[in-house]
Amino acid sequence: MRDTVCLVPPPFLTKLSVWLSTAAAVTILIGIAISQVSLALAIAVLLLSGLPLRWPRIAIPLALFLLWTLLSLAFSPDPRNGIPQVNKIFVFLTMLTIFSSIRAVKEVRFLVVSWVAVGTGTATVGIYQFIHKWRDAIALHRDFYHFYLDKRITGFQDHWMTFSGQQLYLLLMLVAFLMFGPAVKKMTWMWLPCAVVVCTALVLSDTRVVWIAAVIAGSYLLWGWKRRLVLAVPFLLVFAFLIAPASLRQRVTSIWHPEANTDSNSHRTIVWRTGWEMIKAHPLLGMGPEEISKDANFYAYLPKDIPLPLPPGFYKHLHSIYIHYAAERGIPAALFLTGALVMAFFDFRRALAKLPPGRSYQKFVLYWASAVVIGTMVVGVADLNLGLSDVLTMFLVVMCLGYWAVEQPVPLRAVA
Fold it and tell me: Is residue 327 within 8 Å of residue 279, measured between CB atoms?
């Protein structure tokens, strides 16, 4: 009797759950609002579908990180100010929808191909923005390097760090597939040009820490593919530097030879030192969520030997996931988050070690996911990348796909 009054058959709800979960993952490249609406719908349909609710293993340390966040908030001097961080917990439900809904290799493949298509489009938009800004600088008779630093490309995002963080994950995906994915000869005609477009957008974003992360994570992929080629990386970097336009060469050299009041090196040193003072004063529960963004709190812990006024820069967070979360929510919160990253990497590496030689979807996804962990940890040294919902959403999706690959019993070399 119960079956006869069911208006929507469970198979339809199951498919709808997959589509909405995929939509939430893919549309994050366009805007957070449409992604979160899709995520809310995906959660509702998932609960109605009858599918088993599943979480990847990384959810355990991440849940501890969120619980410690709530504990820090409870003892914060201004709990209401930290409510935005409670709202951000919603993003972590991405793990529930993706890991519960996407089970078959054809569903993983559809999500990946959708990311390639939309991601290449966003990269193309970024390249167009760069050309437009280049023309503006010429028309205004401005030095392009100084003109561009505060007006870098963003694609459909609101900041170049968000844009470049997403492009990093897309580039690692494309490279990992070309190196380890099945049937690559049939797909190279599409994937290789997309990789070139995404790589170009990443270079033009002028985000140095993401460049460094791309080189390190890319070298990791190269090591897993053909180890001897890793020896060529330094020579390729030198060659690329020599043929690069002057503005790009200046951006690279600013890593070790920054220009005062233009490059952010001194600004980051200041926020890191200030964060360390906060950690020493509040090691267990931190300052409280969002408390660092208050100017009065920041200047209260600013080391006395740092002269005022401060150099140009953004002082509302500490530009490092390790320092910021330790200062804002306590050392345990930072350890839980770091532990999640380390645990995921070694879970993926153990799964890779069990795979037989040859290309497969598991090998592609596991190498991609482990490279994403490396890239995230490197960028996290100098940016609050996992504090950005747009980047965090992509990261959580990739982690779910990584744990999907861990669970597969046999190598998957064809769409099932």
Answer: yes
